[in-house]
């Protein structure tokens, strides 16, 4: 519904889901921080100057936009959005988080595969007015490694708040 992809569209996000690296400076498998049978999350190659290491969450199934997104898949995406936001708080020590999603050319959608941006936010970071640039994979890698480590340590129980909240010094197991 309300689709804009060309007839023979070669979807770059579908290639990421299938385990392929895109041409530099775009997504590499080393950028992937989470993948299950429903969704994939990876460090975006486009960075806003004060918000390094933001994540894109995509459905593994090709869905062009919000209008075509099944509710069950939306739930999986937004559950992961919450997990990524919590991971940012611990792995990046950010002050907050924001998410955004674009549909159709007039809504600034550039890739014809549904994707949700999740940004680490910092006091007075000016995200929506700052410039952006493409970042090489080597610069993205430390951010991906921090998030992968967080997920490796905390996803098994799906309790994404670490047992020891190092910021507050409190035990979060109860």
From TrEMBL:
<feature type="domain" description="HIT">
    <location>
        <begin position="53"/>
        <end position="128"/>
    </location>
</feature>
<dbReference type="Pfam" id="PF01230">
    <property type="entry name" value="HIT"/>
</dbReference>
<dbReference type="InterPro" id="IPR001310">
    <property type="entry name" value="Histidine_triad_HIT"/>
</dbReference>
<feature type="active site" description="Tele-AMP-histidine intermediate">
    <location>
        <position position="115"/>
    </location>
</feature>
<protein>
    <submittedName>
        <fullName>Diadenosine tetraphosphate hydrolase</fullName>
    </submittedName>
</protein>
<dbReference type="GO" id="GO:0009117">
    <property type="term" value="P:nucleotide metabolic process"/>
</dbReference>
<keyword id="KW-0378">Hydrolase</keyword>
<feature type="short sequence motif" description="Histidine triad motif">
    <location>
        <begin position="113"/>
        <end position="117"/>
    </location>
</feature>
<dbReference type="InterPro" id="IPR011146">
    <property type="entry name" value="HIT-like"/>
</dbReference>
<dbReference type="InterPro" id="IPR036265">
    <property type="entry name" value="HIT-like_sf"/>
</dbReference>
<dbReference type="GO" id="GO:0016787">
    <property type="term" value="F:hydrolase activity"/>
</dbReference>
């Amino acid at each position: 519904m309300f689709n804009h992809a060309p007839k023979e569209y070669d979807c770059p996000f579908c290639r990421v889901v299938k385990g392929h690296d895109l041409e530099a400076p775009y997504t590499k498998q080393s950028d992937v921080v989470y993948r299950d049978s429903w969704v994939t999350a990876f460090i975006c190659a486009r960075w806003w100057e004060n918000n390094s290491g933001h994540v894109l969450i995509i459905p593994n199934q090709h869905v062009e936009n919000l209008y075509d997104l099944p509710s069950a898949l939306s739930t999986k995406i937004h559950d992961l959005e919450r997990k990524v936001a919590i991971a940012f708080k611990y792995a990046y020590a950010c002050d907050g988080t924001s998410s955004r999603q674009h549909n159709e050319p007039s809504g600034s959608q550039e890739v014809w595969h549904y994707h949700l941006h999740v940004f680490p936010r910092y006091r007075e970071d000016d995200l929506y007015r700052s410039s952006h640039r493409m970042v090489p994979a080597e610069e993205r890698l430390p951010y991906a490694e921090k998030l992968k480590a967080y997920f490796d340590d905390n996803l098994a129980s799906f309790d994404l708040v670490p047992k020891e909240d190092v910021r507050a010094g409190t035990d979060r197991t109860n």
